[in-house]
Design brief:
Layout (H helix, E strand, L loop, with lengths): L1 E6 L2 E6 L2 E5 L22 H4 L3 E3 L10 H10 L4 E4 L1 H9 L4 E3 L7 E3 L2 E7 L8 E7 L2 E5 L8 H7 L6 E5 L9 H11 L3 E5 L12 H9 L13 E2 H9 L2
Parallel strand pairs: 3-4, 4-5, 5-6, 10-11, 11-12
Antiparallel strand pairs: 1-2, 1-13, 2-3, 7-8, 8-9, 9-10
The structure holds zinc ion (ZN).
Length: 241
């Protein structure tokens, strides 16, 4: 199982030549609202060639029509999946979206087993994701405020190898310190912060998460945008530290 950070809350997972993208924001569509991106997209929407795109909620940094529509046009096999807010926005755009909601049965997308779990965000349909693939379980929080249930909900579905957690502390998301508390409670094998560095008006230094998480004896790491890494080697690298 390989993972590539696309920036913000976006990732590409690759396994057995299948590609699952979550929350890809690969355009600069928010620049029109005065919120320009701080680094170029690591791939273009046309280069994404995902078999599956999951958008966790209907905000432009997670469901970006300027990313998803050209990605789908360049690769018509792409299946788009999201909660009902994403599905109804997709419908307005002529895009069919397979719906998922928290606590439904697992969804099998090629080699990826997906379970949507609750997130608490300004889009009430927002979800987090538990992704099982290649013998690993990943918990991607999506955008969510802090509740002490986050760690419990994920743990109820088995042990988490990799936690990908939002840390920006603004616009409906938990703070870096709260995220460290979730990591400390959940005890994943490795915790990686996300949702920072994309927009000058909505970012935070990852160290604000890493430091308290390390103090709680949680293993932490950071990903570099655009670099594909095998989860196995990520785990090995951080086990030896
Ligand atoms: Zn967001």
């Amino acid at each position: 199982l390989h993972i590539t950070w696309l920036g913000q809350g976006g990732y590409l997972f690759e396994l057995a030549s299948k590609r699952l993208a979550v929350d890809p924001y690969l355009s600069d569509s928010l620049a029109a609202k005065g919120v320009g991106r701080l680094f170029p997209a690591p791939v273009t929407p046309e280069e994404l060639r995902a078999d599956f795109i999951i958008c966790t909620h209907d905000h432009a940094d997670h469901f970006d029509p300027d990313t998803v529509l050209p990605a789908k046009a360049a690769h018509p096999e792409t299946e788009v999946i999201g909660p009902s807010s994403v599905a109804s926005h997709g419908k307005e755009l002529g895009l069919s979206v397979r719906t998922l909601a928290s606590d439904e049965a697992d969804l099998q997308l090629g080699p990826f087993t997906i379970r949507a779990v609750q997130a608490h965000h300004s889009d009430p349909d927002a979800v987090g994701l538990l992704i099982s693939a290649g013998g690993y379980q990943v918990y991607l929080t999506g955008d969510t405020t802090y509740t002490d249930e986050l760690a419990t909900i994920a743990a109820n579905h088995g042990s988490v190898d990799l936690l990908l957690i939002c840390i920006n502390g603004k616009l409906g998301n938990m703070s870096a310190v709260e995220a460290a508390k979730v990591a400390a409670d959940l005890r994943p094998k490795l915790a990686i912060p996300m949702h920072y560095g994309m927009f000058a008006s909505n970012t935070v230094e990852p160290e604000r998460f890493l430091e308290p998480a390390r103090q709680a004896e949680c293993r932490v790491g950071v990903l570099e945008v655009g670099v594909a890494t095998s989860i196995e080697s990520l785990m090995d690298e951080h086990r030896s530290k």
